[in-house]
Design a protein that fits this description.
Number of strands: 13
Shape: rod-shaped
Structural class: alpha+beta
Helix content: 40-55%
CATH topology of the largest domain: Glucose Permease (Domain IIA)
């Protein structure tokens, strides 16, 4: 039986149990180890409840991004394959119609590349995924629309009544230079009244008496000689809903119902009707609707010249008639 020792504590004025130093040291270590264990448990709880929560959220987001990135990559590769196939078909159709290689897209003008790159680098992952997904959806719709148009063109080419020589695909003037390009279709300023109106063709400036030629084979359906409006003009029906108009002529060398070949001289450039100067007013109409004639000049222009002409024609604000 262990004997206990009782001593009198003068400071506290009471009797107390005497504890040897070693036993007190052991008890102190016990309390210290117990406190450390409690601190470890509390830190683990804090780590799991608070610090680990953002990390788990980031891990889940990372898994989400990886999953959607794989899906977008698969869709992108599929769309790229489809676009490559469409490009080959489109180039072949273009050669069949115009007898020339199609223009390179890089030769046309594109703007805003720097701004798009800055926006791309500034966006976070979620914004990039959302914008990429939207872009792929739009691209998929575009691919379907292009495929539908190519099918329609193929059907047109298969039609025996269609002849590629009928397609109005050359410039209507001989020895034409780019600097003589005037205003094309759209809202333009009338040179006489200085008011806006819808210009239905393109103004091609040329010296008086320059030969005006048919841009495609067809039938002359109208010949007018008048001193107002578009003045002396010739209208040719090329079939398939396409018609071309040649106005402000000084002389006319064809008659109604006459069959003309591509390159046939129809008349001479003049200043008849309401024209500000000697020029040719040239129109292309598809099913009665005026379209931009520059889009039909591919067979006469290189890609770079076409791009320059497109810019000049669309930025010229005043017409000549």
């Amino acid at each position: 039986m262990r004997r206990r020792i009782i001593i009198y504590n003068r400071i506290r004025n009471r009797f107390e149990k005497y504890t040897p130093f070693t036993r007190g040291l052991v008890n102190g270590l016990k309390y210290l180890l117990g406190g450390i264990c409690v601190a470890i448990v509390l830190y683990a709880i804090y780590e799991l409840a608070y610090v680990g929560k953002p990390e788990r959220a980031l891990q889940a987001e990372n898994e989400y991004l990886q999953e959607h990135y794989s899906q977008l990559l698969s869709r992108s590769l599929l769309v790229d394959d489809v676009l490559d196939g469409l490009q080959v078909r489109d180039n072949q159709i273009y050669r069949n119609i115009f007898n020339v290689d199609p223009p390179s897209p890089e030769m046309l003008f594109f703007t805003g590349d720097e701004e798009r790159l800055e926006a791309f680098y500034a966006a976070d992952e979620k914004q990039l995924i959302a914008s990429s997904s939207e872009a792929l959806d739009n691209l998929s719709h575009t691919v379907k629309d292009i495929d539908r148009q190519i099918r329609a063109i193929n059907d047109r080419l298969a039609d025996e009544s269609f002849s590629k020589t009928n397609f109005p695909s050359i410039l209507p003037l001989q020895n034409f230079t780019l600097t003589r390009t005037g205003a094309t279709t759209g809202k333009k300023i009338n040179p006489f009244f200085k008011t806006l109106y819808n210009h239905s063709g393109i103004d091609l400036m040329a010296p008086y008496g320059t030969d005006v030629i048919a841009t495609g084979a067809g039938t002359v359906v109208e010949v007018l000689k008048q001193g107002k409006g578009l003045g002396n003009m010739v209208i040719i029906d090329h079939g398939g809903g396409l018609r071309t108009t040649y106005a402000h002529l000084s002389d006319i060398y064809v008659a109604i119902n006459q069959k003309v070949a591509r390159g046939k001289v129809l008349g001479k450039v003049g200043n008849s009707g309401a024209s500000f100067s000697t020029s040719l007013h040239y129109e292309v109409r598809k099913s009665g609707r005026a379209v931009d004639p520059v889009n039909y000049f591919f067979a006469s222009l290189s890609p770079s010249t076409y791009s320059d002409m497109l810019i000049l024609a669309n930025t010229t604000g005043q017409s000549l008639d």
